[in-house]
Design brief:
The structure is a single chain. By secondary structure, the chain is an alpha/beta fold. The protein has six helices and five strands. A five-stranded parallel sheet has the order 3-2-1-4-5, with helices on both faces. The longest helix is centred in the middle third of the chain and has 17 residues, at 92-108. It is globular. The protein starts with a strand and ends with a helix. The structure holds coenzyme A.
């Protein structure tokens, strides 16, 4: 069984992330969505909330698990028996950071390959920071995030 790991902060998960998960499932038998604790990013949502939000959106897919992790990604991948790391590549601006991360991860564990997937073009400009900013300012984020996430954002930024 081919297992891939899709790591990220997911603060919060967006339709763009879900698009990448769907594409990854066409290539792999099993996908582990790995939510990075990432305290230095000072996330809006706790790691438990981020995991719950993703779980709420993937019920239709039986071959995805959502877990949190801290520490080195390559070490976590080794523990999980995953030889592929999925990353979304949205625009050229993503490339330098992703290139650095993929090669660093390869130097830490040469068995692991990073697989880049492109989201649907409607999500290429999207990131979680933009979504949070729109929600904070009272804008409508329904085209960017699923309903459950939109509700949680309203809870964080009541009008
Ligand atoms: N659609 C919409 N947005 C997307 C997206 C997509 N398909 N793919 C990425 N993004 C956004 C994210 O929402 C995030 O937005 P933000 O910066 O506004 O919050 C941004 O792009 C990048 O975030 P993400 O994909 O979550 O990656 P990250 O840079 O936050 O996390 C880790 C990267 C967790 C994979 C990395 O830090 C890591 O591996 N950490 C573990 C420690 C380690 O091993 N370090 C050495 C690695 S070289």
């Amino acid at each position: 069984m081919r297992t891939a790991l899709y790591p990220g902060t997911f603060d919060p998960v967006t339709r763009g992330h879900l698009d990448i998960m769907e594409r990854a499932l066409r290539l792999f038998d099993n996908l582990i969505v790995a939510v990075a604790v990432h305290p230095e990013k000072q996330p809006l949502f706790t790691v438990e909330e981020r995991v719950e939000m993703i779980r709420g959106e993937i019920e239709q897919w039986k071959n995805i698990q959502v877990e949190s992790f801290h520490g080195l990604l390559t070490e976590y991948a080794r523990q999980k028996g995953a030889l592929s790391i999925i990353r979304g590549l949205r625009a050229v601006s993503d490339f330098e950071y992703e290139f650095q991360m993929a090669l660093t991860n390869r130097s830490l564990n040469s068995d692991i390959e990073t697989v880049f997937l492109m989201p649907s073009e409607q999500f290429t400009y999207l990131n979680s920071t933009i979504v949070k900013e729109i929600a904070m300012l009272g804008g409508n984020v329904s085209q960017f995030v699923p309903q459950g996430v939109e509700k949680r954002l309203r809870g964080k930024y009541p009008r």
